[in-house]
């Protein structure tokens, strides 16, 4: 009897050890999602673990230090398995060899069946897709405006084209004292002004991938913004601060009449100025001559240093699936990057609530998400140089043409393929 | 002889933990950083698991050819202007609050508050002050020293941004040096001051002839600390101006930070070389400080 019990105990112990060995722990890093979306993330992880009993997810949310922490973890040999990066950082990480290709892990067919072609293109580098596209946003998704300031300015409708927007900028400021809107002149860590060229149908790269944003047409467009800036029709802080942050701050103070952007601006206004939120009018955003939107997206990537790439790929695919993205879009007005989102009834509701209205306007528009330019190799240096040149034009130390030519020359001399 | 050997061993045993910590956290990073300055060590090499590759003086040639580094280094050297102002002001206030008057404890604490204030909070506060519609312009207009048309956004101005950021450094460092000076002042024997009073010396004469000479070791320490801090200023520039406008506030440490820690294109080799150049500048200026202030002490 005693022998039998001993044998049973050993057998149970061994089977427990085997089960423990079969359990894979996947480390998952998100970016700026905690604590606001803890509930959604935890619920999705629980659903994934239930569907994949052999995999346990260890989640951490990273904020300012995401990239540095990622690099440090690779150095220390304990890299995370799934990491949340945006388009630009994914491109940089892929160019430098930090990532495994999602198209190698899940196969191109599975990716093509799940995500919009443009979403996959955003994360493609050297012919391979390096990420599972996650939630996105449109820079010109919607236009929000303050009806009182519009009335004061004598405007009866929102601008529908960039040209109208630029013209309204003068009318609104002259008649109300408030700025019309805050353009993204030089947002840090990117080259946001390139988005305006894309929106007007002007090329960023030319033959052989060389920078080609210094034609007279490019310079003429920049000169229009320079003119508005120099004559006081654009807040001067726009050269120093991120446009979205500045715009939401000034809009809530009735000092900016319009925000061109995504519904996410509305959630901030709801917190800071509920009265203005209630009266805010939501409509379609003005488009440039090309009739295209610019936008950005987050993604889930698998580091080269991940020790569990197969399990990591499963988790990334689960989190970025159509069902999970639609569920996320119910929590916060993000734009899903999955093909299935177009068919969802979720975005066909009518409501007077500004957030619900904006969400309905942009929710199924994930196919348009395109930053308008691909991150060049060595982009940190190149973006810095581009922004310095835009600033030089705005502050009048260079002409618009000279600034763009200097930037293009620098890019072509320093771009790594 | 035997006792002497044992005493030496015991001394080193007591020193060992501190030396070990210094070796791990100071000397090794210092030497490794210096070594990296002569290597190519970029994001691409790092991701492939490749170590640093010796490239001799290549990084220093790159720095010599980079106008942004020249601007950054020049701005850091210009930033040293804050040092004499900061030291004189904190010494003067330390002398004032060293008196046994009602409310002095409160003043000492109040001056120290900026030292423990986070830089992001300070940035928000100084944004309100330096904005075109901010407190500073409001004060100048109210006092009829300026007109609404002359109001400037100080952080957006090529002329003023540098001094505006410097004022934040002054504000943040002032209390720290004041406390050090206060500690130094309290070690000066009262009899010396009393003797000077009996000799008929004026407060001004007592300050220059008694206080300042006896405070020279503290002045040397504070000046050195302040010089090194000014050369490696980063946080206030990063949060207030991000180096702008037109790189007028872009400092050498911002250059090092950008090359070493921004994005996946990082270049540890170039960042380390830039760090080495800043370290050499700091050493030269510190040596000059030593010669100037300690030399005077020896002569005094």
Automatic annotation (TrEMBL), chain A:
Read off the InterPro entries from this record. Answer: SBP (IPR006059)
| This protein's UniProt keywords | Signal, Transport
Native organism is Deinococcus aquiradiocola
The GO terms this record gives for MF are: maltose binding
Name-wise, this protein is Sugar ABC transporter substrate-binding protein
Family, as annotated:
Belongs to the bacterial solute-binding protein 1 family.
Which GO cellular component terms, listed alphabetically, does the Swiss-Prot or TrEMBL entry include? ATP-binding cassette (ABC) transporter complex, substrate-binding subunit-containing
Q: Name one GO biological process term.
A: maltodextrin transmembrane transport
Span of the secretion signal? Answer: 1-22
Is Hydrolase given among the entry's keywords? Answer: no
Query: Pfam families, alphabetically?
Result: SBP_bac_1
TrEMBL record, chain B:
Cited CDD domains: TM_PBP2
**What is an annotated GO biological process for this record, any one?**
transmembrane transport
Residues folding into a coiled coil are none
Q: Which residues form the ABC transmembrane type-1 domain?
A: 68-289
The transmembrane segments are: 12-31, 77-97, 109-130, 160-183, 214-234, 266-285
* PROSITE patterns (UniProt xref): ABC_TM1
Q: What is the membrane topology here?
A: Multi-pass membrane protein
Q: One Gene Ontology cellular component annotation?
A: plasma membrane
Q: Which SUPFAM superfamilies match?
A: MalF N-terminal region-like, MetI-like
Q: What is its main location?
A: membrane
Where would you find this protein in the cell? Cell membrane
Q: Which UniProt keywords apply?
A: Cell membrane, Membrane, Transmembrane, Transmembrane helix, Transport
Q: Which InterPro entries match?
A: ABC_transporter_permease, MalF_N, MetI-like, MetI-like_sf
Q: What family does the entry list?
A: Belongs to the binding-protein-dependent transport system permease family.
- Descriptive protein name: Sugar ABC transporter permease
Native source organism of the sequence: Deinococcus aquiradiocola
Upper lineage is:
Bacteria, Thermotogati, Deinococcota, Deinococci, Deinococcales
